[in-house]
UniProtKB/TrEMBL annotation:
Alphabetically ordered keywords of this record: Cell membrane, Membrane, Transmembrane, Transmembrane helix
Transmembrane segments: 29-47, 59-76, 88-107
Domain of life: Bacteria
Native organism: Sphingomonas aracearum
Protein name, UniProt field: YnfA family protein
Membrane topology: Multi-pass membrane protein
Pfam families (UniProt xref): UPF0060 (PF02694)
Family the entry assigns: Belongs to the UPF0060 family.
SUPFAM superfamilies, per the entry: Multidrug resistance efflux transporter EmrE
HAMAP family per UniProt: UPF0060
Amino acid sequence: MTAFAFFGAALAEIAGCFAFWAWLRLGKSPWWVAPGILSLCLFAYLLTLPASDQAGRSYAAYGGVYILSAVLWLWIAEGTKPDRWDLIGAAVCLVGAAIIFFGPRAATGG
């Protein structure tokens, strides 16, 4: 469920932000903003689904998935093949995200 939520959130965030990019930078119609806003609302909802007691830790782990998704967007949606530095950077971020999200935590009293 966590992977689905993170990748779904990343797609929704990138699509929502791209709608604004298309409007402001590519000269698309302002109507692109409406689905962009809906997509950003979906993004926010999906980030509430991962099993984490702390929002900040969940958001930090999500960051690695977002970076990988942005590199995939670059390739699939924008037609620019990622170079080795894009791929290495995304891999490093995913490792960091996994450490943050799945690292063992000491039990605290609260």
